[in-house]
């Protein structure tokens, strides 16, 4: 029985050619970006979320969140939003950013009626995003 194998030099050249072709393919998929591999390591996520489980009617609800980002995201790219998804209508909402926009504090006036109020908090930057849904029981 005869077995054939590539000589070590030929195998090394084939591996290098395959690697060059792969990198060229990734660069082409990057749309001409000067950093074609950025999409492989860029992300943003909510790493900490703090809010009260319950609050009294018309009181201030304090919601704090922190995000972690990697890759091609800087603080100026980060935007936070807070939306009420159900429950009685809330009052005013204020937003304060800190830590190069990686931390946000929302102050929301609780409704004047009891029951659960559901929120969705979202952080986004450069086409990447993360969100969390939570509720506060108004008593």
What value does the Rg take, in angstroms? 25 Å
Give the rounded overall mean pLDDT: 86
| Major β-sheet annotation | 4 strands, antiparallel
Q: What is the number of independent domains? A: 2
What would your notes on this structure say?
With 139 residues, the chain is an alpha+beta fold. The chain has two domains: 8-38; 43-138, Immunoglobulin-like, CATH 2.60.40.2410. It is 16% helix and 46% strand. The protein contains one helix and eight strands. The chain has one helix at residues 8-29; strands spanning 43-50, 54-55, 60-70, 79-86, 93-98, 103-109, 115-125, 128-138. Strands 1-3-6-5 form a four-stranded antiparallel beta sheet, with no helix packed on it. Strand 5 and strand 6 form a beta hairpin. The termini are far apart.
Q: How is this structure best summarized?
A:
The protein has about 140 residues and is α+β, with helices and mostly antiparallel strands.
For the structure shown, list the relevant keywords.
4-stranded antiparallel sheet; Immunoglobulin-like; single chain; 4-stranded mixed sheet; 2 domains; alpha+beta; 139 residues
């Amino acid at each position: 029985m005869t077995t054939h194998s590539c000589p070590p030099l030929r195998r090394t050249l084939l591996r290098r050619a395959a690697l060059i072709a792969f990198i060229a393919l990734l660069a082409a998929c990057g749309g001409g970006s000067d950093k074609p591999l950025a999409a492989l390591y860029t992300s943003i996520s909510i790493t900490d979320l703090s809010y009260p489980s319950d609050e009294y009617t018309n009181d201030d609800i304090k919601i704090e969140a922190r995000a972690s980002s990697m890759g091609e995201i800087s603080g100026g790219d980060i935007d936070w939003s807070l939306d009420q998804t159900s429950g009685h209508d809330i009052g005013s909402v204020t937003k304060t950013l800190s830590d190069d926009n990686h931390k946000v504090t929302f102050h929301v006036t609780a409704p004047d009626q009891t029951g659960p109020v559901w929120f969705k908090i979202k952080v986004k930057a450069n086409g990447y995003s993360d969100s969390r849904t939570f509720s506060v029981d108004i008593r």
